[in-house]
């Protein structure tokens, strides 16, 4: 991958843990470094406020040895590619392999095709994202950080999944994240001109 190309990268949602620069009780600055930026986001799920600590990792290969140390304990990973960049899409498989090796076995993974607002520059069809996501059994949607399309939904779906896991009674059915996303998501093509 060219260093100048937009890169696919995992954004992690992490719990607190001793010995690493992370966790909701630590200040934002302590969990960040030259290649990782962090933000806290509050999401209300069924009346319960859930705090997500989001780590935005750089996608470049040169940072991979650093980033896997960070996403190893993530509860959720958002894998983003840029719909206008084939290399960012092609990198997703490599990230999924990395994740399989280093991440928690029950990590929530979501594939996001970002920049859905620039449909005229699109090189990756939504169907290609859907096919890749199906292959790996992960939910998929197209997003736009510019218009906000599906961004709240992505975080809400993850917060719902994590909250359900945390408070679920043994006889309670699992939260169906795929079904929830499919019922809620907006298609990129219909909203490209927003
Ligand atoms: N039109 C449009 N531009 C976007 C969108 N998201 C990001 N950008 C632009 O794309 C460029 C790169 O954005 P970044 O957020 O730095 O991308 P990144 O993937 O985090 O970059 P790395 O961390 O270096 O891999 C910036 O100029 C953003 O303004 C989007 O949804 N739509």
Low-confidence parts: 1-6, 15-30
User: Gyration radius, to the nearest Å?
Assistant: 16 Å
CATH architecture of the domain at 78-189: 3-Layer(aba) Sandwich
Largest sheet: 6 strands, mixed
Strand elements, count? 6
User: What percent of residues adopt helix (DSSP H or I)?
Assistant: 25-40%
The CATH homologous superfamily of the domain at 78-189 is termed: P-loop containing nucleotide triphosphate hydrolases
Hetero groups in this structure are: guanosine-5'-triphosphate
Largest sheet: spatial strand order: 2-3-1-4-5-6
Description:
The chain has 194 residues and is of the alpha/beta class. The protein has a domain at 78-189: P-loop containing nucleotide triphosphate hydrolases (Rossmann fold, 3-Layer(aba) Sandwich). The chain contains six helices and six strands; from the N terminus they run E-E-E-H-E-H-E-H-E-H-H-H. The chain starts with 8 loop residues before the first strand and ends with a helix. It binds guanosine-5'-triphosphate (GTP). Guanosine-5'-triphosphate (GTP) is lined by residues 6-7, 9, 58-59, 114-115, 117-118, 144-146.
Outline the fold blueprint:
Elements (H helix, E strand, L loop, with lengths): L8 E5 L22 E10 L2 E10 L6 H8 L4 E7 L3 H17 L5 E7 L11 H11 L3 E3 L8 H17 L9 H8 L3 H4 L3
Parallel strand pairs: 4-5, 5-6
Antiparallel strand pairs: 1-3, 1-4, 2-3
The structure holds guanosine-5'-triphosphate (GTP).
Entry keywords:
194 residues; disordered N terminus; 6 strands; binds guanosine-5'-triphosphate; 22% strand; Rossmann fold; 6-stranded mixed beta sheet; globular; alpha/beta; single chain
């Amino acid at each position: 991958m060219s260093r100048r190309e937009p890169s696919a990268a995992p954004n992690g949602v992490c719990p607190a843990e001793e010995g690493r620069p992370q966790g909701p009780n630590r200040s934002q600055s302590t969990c960040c470094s030259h290649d990782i930026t962090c933000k806290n986001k509050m999401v209300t799920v069924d009346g319960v406020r859930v705090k997500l600590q989001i780590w935005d990792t750089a996608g470049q290969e040169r940072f991979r040895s650093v980033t896997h140390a960070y996403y190893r304990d993530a509860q959720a990973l958002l894998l983003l590619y840029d719909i206008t960049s084939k290399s960012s899409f092609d990198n997703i498989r490599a990230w999924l392999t990395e994740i399989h090796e280093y991440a928690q076995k029950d990590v929530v993974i979501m594939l996001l095709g970002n920049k859905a607002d620039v449909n005229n520059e699109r090189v990756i069809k939504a169907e290609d994202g859907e096919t890749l996501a199906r292959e790996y059994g992960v939910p998929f949607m197209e997003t736009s950080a510019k218009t906000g399309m599906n961004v709240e939904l992505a975080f809400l779906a993850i917060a719902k999944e994590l909250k359900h896991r945390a408070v679920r009674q043994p006889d309670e059915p699992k939260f169906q994240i795929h079904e929830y996303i499919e019922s809620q998501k907006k298609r990129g093509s219909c909203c490209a001109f927003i």
